Amino acid sequence: xxxxxxxxxxxxxxxxxxxxxxxxxxxxxxxxxxxxxxxxxxxxxxxxxxxxxxxxxxxxxxxxxxxxxxxxxxxxxxxxxxxxxxxxxxxxxxxxxxxxxxxxxxxxxxxxxxxxxxxxxxxxxxxx
Length: 128
Prior knowledge:
Blueprint: E1 3-7, E2 10-12, E3 18-25, E4 33-39, E5 46-51, E6 58-60, E7 68-73, E8 78-83, E9 92-99, E10 117-118, E11 122-126
Parallel strand pairs: 2-11
Antiparallel strand pairs: 1-3, 3-8, 4-5, 4-9, 5-6, 7-8, 9-10, 9-11
């Protein structure tokens, strides 16, 4: 059974940092590109970042460029999202998702997927 599990969310003050993890079980991540998404209350889901299967290419939403970094460790079957300089508007539930199609591509409109496997999400709250 393919499963993704996010962890690392929590409450952090503005300007702080968090590192989210996305661990896979039941399949190996090195055949998939991985996307991080977030959804805030009352808002549509937003594509935050994407990383190709080898980790050679990544892409970021304009709202997080320069603050977030996506990384992957295929040996650990895990993808990370390092989030620095967090802002209140980063508050959301963060999800990771895996796409088997086009594993080496994270270009424009990468967030359209298709992402077939999704985690359950982890809450990130940025507040003083």
